[in-house]
């Protein structure tokens, strides 16, 4: 079952491009990554899904229901963490969270306490006195307190220290195990790689790739690092499938995509000291997509 269905969604801001003809689906139970550089259209997509802005054309469904016709009903089952959180600074954290909880027809007080404990958030403090990271934690608790079926996170980790990021990810994994579907927007690839099953890559408002993280990593490039006994002649490894070739004396490195035997034969034909074949991280693969598309 699809929790999110985006169908040829376009949003323009006057003359400015937001997103263009975007289509993809997110299945129930997925942790779905939504990656792209600044200005790619991630927030525009999310804000459209939440009914905060209206699409110029196209449509989208959440839980099988049209986002415009059934907006308020859908939103009760969504937990949303915006990229930037703004609050009435004078309020205490617990009062703000109580107020947020009042929008749902359930008692969220126990869950608020649990979440605050996990995220190490002091409920008795005034919002005004909180650091940026702690304000972010308030947003996290606010987004999760009602046990939403769909969690939408827009660049959620900015401002959180590594320990808190880890705790936050564990929390998301627990929510996912309990059945929540997660849409996780980010420009930080390592966190998407760590958390998500599938990913949509957007660039300049358009979808350029939709892939399982495992496929994205496996079916593509391998990073070769080679140490030779004597310096190799310049361009020795320049062959079809080799990218980002760096030759520095006895050290050669490149990304390779293609028939592995061909590159192995090339390596075997010279005296080598050492060789490393690694999975490139998503960052490297991602940069490559972008270069290719430019
Ligand atoms: N209110 C607005 N008015 C005009 N243009 C806008 C508005 N909001 C977004 N845009 C434009 O739409 C495009 C997509 O922006 P969006 O904020 O959706 O990208 P993003 O991928 O979320 O990037 P970021 O990570 O920087 O938030 C950009 O070119 C941006 O300048």
From TrEMBL:
Annotated coiled-coil segments of the chain: none
Family assignment from sequence similarity: Belongs to the ABC transporter superfamily.
Protein name: ABC transporter
Keywords assigned: ATP-binding, Nucleotide-binding, Transport
Entry-linked Gene3D superfamilies: P-loop containing nucleotide triphosphate hydrolases
All copies of domain ABC transporter, residue ranges: 4-229
SMART domains (UniProt xref): AAA (SM00382)
Top-level lineage group: Bacteria
InterPro entries given in the database record: AAA+_ATPase, ABC_transporter-like_ATP-bd, ABC_transporter-like_CS, ABC_transporter_ATP-binding, P-loop_NTPase
Name of one Pfam family that matches: ABC_tran
GO molecular-function terms, A-Z: ATP binding; ATP hydrolysis activity
